[in-house]
């Protein structure tokens, strides 16, 4: 599995298990949050530039939060999704990296 976080300076390789948010934080990348990863604030949203199919499917609650915040299809709450297909390449970014 390769998970890359695209930042203004360079792409960062994320490792480990758990949610995308957890992997970002472990790599030293900040992730916005005001709900501590409970899936309520949507501040942790990331754009998935590649590898959406390798991520866990959003549940009803995540879909509701994404829709309520006007996010498009290629956006996920990083605190709610995990990489399931460990052979895939996933590329994510946010507006503040
Ligand atoms: S941290 Fe609040 S929804 Fe993910």
Task: Reconstruct the topology from this structure.
Blueprint: E1 2-6, E2 11-14, H1 20-26, E3 45-50, H2 60-68, E4 75-77, E5 89-93
Bound molecules: FE2/S2 (inorganic) cluster.
Residues 33, 35, 37, 39-44, 77, 79 line the site of FE2/S2 (inorganic) cluster (FES).
Low-pLDDT sequence parts:
none
Mean pLDDT metric? 95
The CATH homologous superfamily: Beta-grasp domain
**What is the CA-based Rg, rounded?**
12 Å
* Major sheet strand order: 2-1-5-3-4
User: How many separate structural domains?
Assistant: 1
Q: Find the count of extended strands (DSSP E, 2+ residues).
A: 5
Report the oligomer. Answer: single chain
Q: Give the C-level CATH assignment.
A: Alpha Beta
- Structural class by helix and strand composition: alpha+beta
Helix content: 10-25%
Distance from first to last alpha carbon: 22 Å
How would you spell out the order of helices and strands?
EEHEHEE
Shape category: globular
């Amino acid at each position: 599995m390769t998970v890359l976080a695209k930042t203004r300076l360079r792409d960062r390789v994320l490792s480990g298990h758990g949610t995308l948010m957890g992997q970002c934080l472990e790599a030293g990348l900040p992730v916005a949050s005001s709900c501590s990863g409970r899936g309520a604030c949507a501040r942790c949203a990331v754009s998935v530039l590649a590898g959406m199919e390798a991520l866990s499917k959003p549940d009803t609650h995540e879909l509701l939060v994404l829709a309520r915040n006007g996010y498009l299809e290629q956006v996920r709450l990083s605190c709610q999704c995990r990489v399931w297909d460990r052979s895939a390449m996933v590329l994510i970014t946010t507006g503040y990296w």
